[in-house]
């Protein structure tokens, strides 16, 4: 997954189809002098439907196609024949897509499975003239027109669906870890905010099992208030089952970094702190044996109730233990 083709926020316009007209046909047949009205009903207009597709992972297609329209219903005809229903407009989106009404700002639904969700109903077809026959009006020559379709503007927001979300300060080593554990090729550099979009990768575990890991753009203090990348990345963490906090070995105060990260998540959505999590000290290849022992002593003091892991993505150190810990957290 590359940053150029990952799109997680778009606006689109959609229209349902109008209903078909009812028919005003009067029955005409040899030897039947006054057949009476037999005009059929119009067909309903097509609905606008959103459907989840597990094979999609981005909203990229909506950058090029932003207008969607269902078909109109067919008109009624003789012999009480009902017009054909308009073809529905089915819009496929990735799982984890939130549908928001632009005008009201209301969250309409969140697509979490492959079921269809109707967001705009098509116009109802008009009734044919046979419905209006009465003792005082044996040959009504009028029928109902179909009801019009509706237009709505939507915002689509994709929240990445992943088992494990990497959370840490910029340049904490998240992208390097993702590249070490998966086949993903995220952008890696020695400056902050190299990751501007979430990256996904599949981590292979024992017994042919696996889980999905997401590299989330780095957090800074005040992110929940819109600083840095702000809410842009925080909403993705909501869809992760387990949070992996990444704290670099060269951090001045590992516990302070952890506290800031948790504080930003809590400010954005307190429910994020209810998720299972794992803490890993990254970049341990930068430390010699003595410095690592000192850091291990420090973490046992500052994280007395946590099982902190020490890893190095570059040196492939501690990664098997990390995968085991994440797997346990996912299945606890």
Please explain how this structure is put together.
With 332 residues, this protein is α/β, with parallel strands linked by helices. It folds into two domains: 3-158, Spo0b-associated Gtp-binding Protein, Chain: A (Distorted Sandwich), CATH 2.70.210.12; 162-330, Rossmann fold. It has five helices and 14 strands. It has helices at residues 174-181, 231-237, 254-268, 289-302, 319-330; strands at 9-15, 48-53, 67-69, 89-94, 97-101, 107-111, 116-120, 151-158, 162-168, 199-204, 210-215, 240-248, 276-282, 309-310. The strands form three sheets. It has a six-stranded mixed sheet, sandwiched between helices. Helix 4 links the parallel strand 13 and strand 14. The longest helix is centred in the C-terminal third of the chain and has 15 residues, at 254-268. Mean pLDDT is 84; it is low at 188-195.
């Amino acid at each position: 997954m590359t940053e150029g083709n990952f799109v997680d926020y778009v606006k689109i316009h959609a229209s349902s189809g109008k209903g078909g007209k009812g028919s005003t046909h009067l029955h005409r047949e040899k030897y039947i002098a006054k057949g009476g009205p037999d005009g059929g009903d119009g067909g309903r207009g097509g609905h606008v439907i959103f459907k989840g597709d597990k094979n999609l992972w981005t909203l990229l297609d909506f950058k090029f196609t932003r207008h969607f329209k269902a078909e109109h219903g067919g008109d009624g005809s003789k012999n009480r024949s009902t017009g054909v229903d308009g073809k529905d407009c089915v819009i496929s989106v990735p799982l984890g897509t939130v549908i928001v009404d632009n005008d009201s700002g209301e969250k309409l639904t969140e697509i979490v499975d492959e079921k269809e969700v109707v967001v705009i109903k098509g116009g109802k077809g008009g009734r044919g003239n046979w419905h209006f026959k009465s003792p005082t009006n044996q040959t009504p020559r009028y029928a109902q027109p179909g009801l019009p379709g509706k237009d709505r503007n939507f915002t689509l927001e994709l929240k990445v669906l992943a088992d494990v979300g990497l959370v840490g300060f910029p340049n904490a080593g998240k992208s390097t870890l993702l590249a070490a554990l998966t086949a993903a090729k995220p952008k890696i550099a020695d400056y902050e905010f190299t990751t501007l979009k979430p990256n996904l990768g599949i981590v292979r575990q024992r017994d042919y099992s696996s889980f999905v890991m997401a590299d989330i753009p780095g957090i800074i203090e005040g992110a929940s208030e819109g600083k840095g990348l702000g809410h842009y990345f925080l909403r993705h963490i909501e869809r992760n089952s387990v949070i992996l906090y990444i704290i670099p070995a060269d951090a001045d105060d590992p516990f302070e970094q952890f506290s800031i990260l948790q504080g930003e998540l809590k400010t954005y959505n307190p429910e994020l702190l209810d998720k299972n999590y794992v803490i890993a000290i990254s970049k341990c290849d930068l430390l010699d044996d003595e410095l690592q022992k000192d850091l291990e002593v420090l973490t046992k003091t500052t994280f007395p109730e946590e099982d902190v892991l020490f890893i190095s993505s570059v040196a492939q150190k501690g990664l098997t233990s990390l995968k085991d810990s994440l797997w346990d957290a996912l299945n606890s």
